[in-house]
Amino acid sequence: MNSPHNRSTYHDGVAGPSIVWLATGFLLTGLGTVLLGPIMPTLLHDWRLTDQQGGLLLASKFVGAFLGGVLVPRQLRLGVLAGAGFACVGFAAFALSGGLLSGSICLFVSGFGLGQLIASTNVLVGRRYSKHTGSALALVNFFWSLGAVLCGLITAAVLPRFHLRLPLLLFAAMFLVAGVGGVLQPAPDAAAADEPPSANLPPAPMRLLLRFGFLLFLYGGLETCMTGWLTTYTVRFSDAHLLGGQSAIVLLWSALTAGRALSSAALRILREATLQRLGLALSALWIAALSTTRHAPLLSLYSVLLGLSLAPFFPTTFALLIQRRPTARQAGFILAVSGLGAALFPWMMGFVSTESGSLREAMAVPLALALALLVVSPAPNRGPQPG
Q1: How many C-beta atoms surround the C-beta of residue 248 within 10 A?
Q2: Which of 88, 75, 72, 91 has the alpha carbon at shortest distance from 17?
Q3: What is the CATH number of the domain that holds 337?
Q4: Mean pLDDT on 152-156
Q5: Which among 366, 339, 364 is positioned nearest to 222, based on CA atoms?
């Protein structure tokens, strides 16, 4: 029988907002994560910044998100609340800022909040839904992807009419509503939780946790290589501009979003490791095909297929990690490491493109990442399907 201390510790790991508020917060988190991209041209113009200075704004948010993930608290409900609070304060202050220094500080604060939200929500959902963990994580990450898809559409509709300040203030207020709403409506199943289903299992060894960190490091680079460079690749190598080069990336994000919903259903039938490796094998195939085509219809098709293939990786990987019972701080650190890959490998892709004179040749970087992930990903076991 577990001691009262163990029950208290487990309750700290599953207590928090209901799934409705967690999904709402993740939708806002997806919007906030990709927000800087669509508004960057406006910031560069209004603040008279160079591209290099604009890159510092991105770096500020990335550093903040990394630290937010690393410093996730043991009581995950506090991480969700603190994340919403920091995001609210950061984006509200950013709306009122007017230059590089103040904007960078505000984005660091908002990034810290986003990092806390991403880590705390994923760990909380993974622990709370011990049965069909991958399915639950795929579903909640569907809302993050949906926010990422909606961000560009909302920005295009709102900016010409209201500019930046008022929409950003309203966006910040939404984080406050999500945080307070989660506090006022906690999950009923968390309060009734008695003991962890795997309470007698030993904690994961550090070697295994480092392996998961390496997986997410590589995947962060793979996904960001494709989402960061696909528009440029489309404009340079397609026989049509695909609506100014934006259609391919919209299709990729849309397929990632739909794929998360489909993965949630598929993971009730397939093991996490099986679906993960199948998605990686197909991803390598579609990247290779995409890098050889010059026709807009095929490029659009490969973008959709690639998004569907990439979609299962994060929820399946994190579900497999949660089954190893990492602490909240360990899981948050592993999540944050993916941001380091997102910073390194897209830069490497640009470097290869510059040195070789061809972005097509630089597609070897994400192809190599997909193949490396396939090699080091966990092999499906023959035991019973993990929850």
Answers
A1: 25
A2: 75
A3: 1.20.1250.20
A4: 78
A5: 366
